[in-house]
Amino acid sequence: VEHNPILCTASGRAYLPFCPDEEREHLLNMVSRKGGEESRLLRDTRRLSALLSSTRERGLAVNDGEFPLQPAFGALAAPVLHASHVVACVRLVFSRRAISATDASNRYGALIAGVARNVERALEASLQAKFNI
């Protein structure tokens, strides 16, 4: 968590709502001990709850320049799930000068979510073939 923020990045925001509750609590506890920008978001429980809920509903997370190290960029991310666990995230990074987060989400959100579903299917097929499931 130290070098990989989870509340300020699209990938982290895509990961958290879909990981097991116990793991999410562990990660959020780590964030709270770390302090800084993410800790402030963690204290805003209404915003955090809304962020997790909307990501669950859409299957897509958005970062609109909220990652302090790269505010000129935004990102969209979708989780890749296997056996009810997040095994990866598919992410699209964009310049906020070139496109707004809303426009990026409208134009590319379904594509990113579709790529994540394709990766899930390919992973499942690969595991079935390898282990004759």
| Strand and helix order | HHHHEEEH
Low-confidence spans: pLDDT under 50, at least 5 residues? none
Report the biggest beta sheet as strand number plus sense, adding barrel if it closes: 3 strands, antiparallel
What's the helix count? 5
Compute the number of strand runs: 3
Helix content: 40-55%
The overall average pLDDT, rounded, is 92
What is the radius of gyration?
A: 15 Å
- Helix/strand class: alpha+beta
Distance between the termini: 35 Å
Beta-strand percentage range: 15-25%
From the structure provided, what is the oligomeric state, counting identical versus distinct chains? single chain
Write the layout of secondary structure elements.
Layout: H1 10-15, H2 21-34, H3 36-43, H4 45-58, E1 61-63, E2 73-82, E3 85-95, H5 101-131
Antiparallel strand pairs: 1-2, 2-3
Description:
The chain is an alpha+beta fold. Helix content is 55%, strand content 18%. The protein is built from 5 helices and 3 strands. The protein has a 3-stranded antiparallel sheet with strand order 1-2-3. A hairpin with a 2-residue loop joins strand 2 (73-82) and strand 3 (85-95). The radius of gyration is 15 Å and the shape is globular. It starts with 9 loop residues before the first helix and ends with a helix. 26% of the residues are buried. The model has no long low-confidence stretch (mean pLDDT 92).
